[in-house]
Every structure is written in structure tokens, then in C-alpha cells.
Amino acid sequence: MNLNFSTVHLPKVMSDICSLTIKNNRATVSEILQIVEKDKFIDLFLYDYLKVDTRSSRFGKLMGVGWDGIRNRIAEAYLFRATNQVYPRSYEEDEIADLLVLEKRYSFMSPERNSRVFMLGMYLKLCDIYVHNNVPDNAANEVHMAIPHEVDEILVSFSSKTHHPDWVILTCWSLFSSLGKEDALTLLKKAKGNMNVIKQEIEGAKFDLLIKNLMAYGHGINDKQIFTSIRV
After folding, report:
1. How far is CA 189 from the centre of its chain?
2. How many Å apart are CA 153 and CA 150, to the nearest integer?
3. How confident is the model at residue 139 (pLDDT cuts 50, 70, 90)?
4. For residues 73 and 67, what is the distance between their CA atoms, to the nearest angstrom?
5. Cα–Cα dist 183/189, whole Å
6. Distance from C-alpha of 122 to C-alpha of 192, rounded to nearest angstrom
7. What percent of the chain is helix, strand and coil (3-state, nearest 5)?
8. CB of 160 within 8 A of CB of 21?
9. How far apart are the C-alpha atoms of 65 and 58, rounded to whole Å?
10. For residue 55, which of 46, 42, 66 has the smallest C-alpha distance?
């Protein structure tokens, strides 16, 4: 089945946080708070969500949960809202559990403290929520979070880690869905990340679908660079 992503958008707060280069915990928490404070709603929401009433006490609590704890809490709040139309009153991990599984699944290709697979997971889950809410007849047939394990079998053939594992996973998945495992693997080895080679080797409609999916994802995660260059 060919991929065909829905039109969904991550909140800019989440895409900015997941795109950070993680330094030490204190510096990263400070950077995250700078991102959060640009969104007045989330800024205020975090005070209530964390059960704190001053900026210093919020910083202290966030230091305690760490940069990934902040990321997880904000993602949980957004996904809970997308599913239930209200924001949660307390933190669980019900909505992000499968994002964490996905992140662990692709840890072999992600540098330590890289959140881009987590971001990909959130995008895919929002696609599933959109389909469930808006296309009920297709909800059981189109599960974006279910990346075929054949994709993993292709990816393990490439040993190096990458700072943009999300783009690599999506490219591999799209080619697998169009070409099958063996042909996708052969093409990726030949292309070595060069999109021009991929364009030359597959028929136009399949290449157009690949670009469409990458563009949809780039738009969904607020990545404006995707409109001038495709990174693989």
C-alpha cells in the first residue's frame, strides 16, 4: 500500500523542541523554556500542569524531570487534546507510549539525545488521529504509526547514525511501499542519499509520491527548508 500522509501540523513548540541540539540538562531546559515562553498558552498551561506558581519553581521542577521529561509532557498534553478535545489535568504517558517505543526502535540510527524520531512519531500519530476523526470508514485500514518491519531490515544495512533519521525512515518507507524490500534496498545503496539518482531510477509517479510525502512531513513539522532542498 502506497503511503499518503494526511495534512496535519505539529505545534511549533514541539517541532522546535524536537529539533534542538541537546547540550547539558540545565542549558537545554533554559532553551526549552525560551521556546515555551513564545507560546503564551503553553507557557501558562505548564504552570497549572506542573502544579507550580512561580517561574523559579517551574524551572526547578523542569530541571528535575529533564529535557526529555519536558518534551514528553508537552507532547502528551497536545496528543491528549487532539484525541479528547480537552487538555489533561495530570501527566500520564498514555498518548506518548507508542512514540517512546518508536524512538527506542530506531535508536540504532539516531545519535544520543536526538528527538527527531520522537517528532516523526508524533506527526504519524496526529495523522492517525486525523484519519480516525475525519475518515472513519478508513480508520481501520490506514495506520500511519505501523511502519513495516521490512523498513527496519533495509535501514540496518546502513550502519552510520544520522542527525535526521526521520527523513531517512520516511524515504526508505516510501520507497519500500512503492518498490518492495529488495528493489528499495538496491536503489538506496546505489543512490547513497542522492535524490537525483533516485529520480532517475524510478518511474515518475512513484518519485512524485515520494516527494509529496516528504513535502507533507516537512510542512507538518514546520520545516521550511524542505521546500528548497530534500535531505536524505
Report:
1. 25
2. 5
3. very low
4. 10
5. 10
6. 27
7. 65, 0, 35
8. no
9. 11
10. 46
With cell 520545516, the residue in question is 223
pLDDT at 142: 58
Other Cβ atoms closer than 10 A to 211: 16
Residue with C-alpha cell 489535568? Answer: 89
- More confident: 150 or 52: 150
Residue 228: band (very low, low, confident or very high) from pLDDT cuts 50, 70, 90: low
3-state helix/strand/coil string of 123-188:
HHHHHHHHHHHHCHHHCCCCCCCCCCHHHHHHHCCCCCCCCCHHHHHHHHHHHHHHHCHHHHHHHH
Average pLDDT, the chain: 87
Residues 122 and 75: beta-carbon distance below 8 Å = yes
The helix (run of H) or strand (run of E) holding residue 56 is helix 55-84
CA nearest 178: which of 148, 156, 157?
148
Q: Is the pLDDT of residue 13 over 80?
A: yes
pLDDT tens column, 83-115: 999 988 888 889 999 999 999 999 999 988 899
Contact status, residue 150 vs residue 134, Cβ threshold 8 Å: no
Query: Residue for cell digits 512561580?
Result: 54
Element (H, E) at 52: none
Q: Kindly tell me the sign of the dihedral angle through the C-alpha atoms of 221, 223, 226, 230.
A: negative
φ and ψ at residue 144, rounded to 5 degrees? -70, -30
